[in-house]
Amino acid sequence: MNLEDFNNLSQGQAAAILRPCLDVERWINDIVASRPYSSNDELLATGYRSAETLSEAETAAALAHHPRIGERADGNSAAAHLSRGEQADLQLNDDITAQLSAANRAYEARFNRVFLIRAAGRSSAEILSECERRLGNADDIEAREVAEQLSAIALLRLENAISH
User: Where is the Oxo-4-hydroxy-4-carboxy-5-ureidoimidazoline decarboxylase domain (predicted)?
Assistant: First the structure.
């Protein structure tokens, strides 16, 4: 969809385009209410500013829509399709799959939430290394990293959803 078409959608239609990017009502409402946008840069800046202030509750709710890294997202939703596309380049053999599974379990035991990282453009080895590094984070630092990764994923999806 191009920016002009996005600007002209009804509020409900625009929200439906944004929801797979980041299923947080405040974020969606901020972007929809700020239309019309004169450029994609302006749209992305609005998305970034709104994502910068994700609360812990918003982050937790959004994480519910993300599969474990290395696992295929189930379903036919737009978010599931996006997730599968973002993880499509991961080189997953049996060894890497086992390592990611163990890393996911360790992370979930430590932080009681799914390990989230922007997978697009990253190798399996880099993702594993980041998970291991982040296991040593203090809770507050990890909460910030999760919010940053969620924001990065949302902006990547937003950029891909609305073209020039």
Answer: 7-159
